[in-house]
Amino acid sequence: MYDSAMPPQDSTLARPGTRILLRATKYDGTAHWIQPFRVRSDDGNLLVADYRARAPIFTSRGEFRSPYDSRVYFWRDRWYNVFRLSRPGADISLWYCNVTTPPLLEGCQLTYVDLDLDVAVRPDGLIQFLDEDEFEAHQRKYGYPEHVIEQAEKAALEVAELARQNAFPFCLR
Prior knowledge:
Layout: E1 19-25, E2 31-42, E3 46-51, E4 56-59, E5 62-65, E6 69-75, E7 80-86, E8 92-100, E9 104-106, E10 109-121, E11 127-130, H1 132-142, H2 146-164
Parallel strand pairs: 1-10
Antiparallel strand pairs: 1-2, 2-3, 2-4, 3-6, 4-5, 6-7, 7-8, 8-10, 9-10, 10-11
């Protein structure tokens, strides 16, 4: 089970060009998905990585291959990450934001707990809150502490506000 009393701290920096493996779990520690990335940059707080379309993603439901190239932003001090999705050779299609615990980088593995809530942001400005029913169900199933629920809800609202302001990383450049 995730110990959320203190956000994870790590001093490991990922070197640009290296590969890392994302291992996302549910709150009880069960595997949710595993996805490979190539590091673009890491300043100690913001790790930026890329995923190439059609590379395998291993989920609790089986293997998946996304049709999108992704640029992904993982902040070590935030309760969300942002996937900037585009079809190969095309403009941005969508920003997909996962509400999660702050990530921890250990060696070549990046881990976090997926907290179910997601926010989709389209280039035309449409913002959608997703999986609220799953978030409610998992609060009961996994016994999310009140501060985890509050952080998750706050993170979803923060992401939506950044998108409304066209703030980084929600820019079309």
